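Class, discuss our next protein.
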Amino acid sequence: MKQKFLWLMIFSLAVAPVLRAQDAALEERLGKMSGYIEGLQEENSSLKKQIASMSREIQALREQASQPNTSYATHDDMKRFEEKLREIDKKRIEDNERIAKQIENLARTLSKSSGVRPQKNTPAPNDNPPNNSGGNTGSGKGYNHEVAQGDTLSTIAQAYSKTSGTKITVDQILKANDGLTEKIKPGQKIFIPRPE
């Protein structure tokens, strides 16, 4: 028995370091495996957080896509815009008619107060002045005028100055019509120069 005991002792002394070495290697492997598992668990947790964040972003994008975009015009918007344009155009036409009537009224008032009856085509410039009184020294653009009862060169000059918006003098009218004097007769045709 002693011998057996001795052999057991020797064996345990000889095998124990090997077993201890194997236990240490096993423990080291277990430690590495444990660390690897912890790393995988951390990565898994991180991936779960990323997936949750992406899921929230996708949900927000879906909600945003389902809401109507206000940066484009709808069919109703275009109809309202068309109606507004028609209304503006109608008002523009009415304003033009109103302005034309006021101009006519002003012309009537002007001709009544000055005694000059501008012809309907008076404001239209005439590039070819008439030669009714022995020749024409005036060159350029102007207006044809038929002298009415009560007209004088002074009242004619004033009326055409207001109509044209430029100052026309009696002297300019005389120079534009050769042989014309300040004595004018109803029905006489004269050229009214338009100063440039």
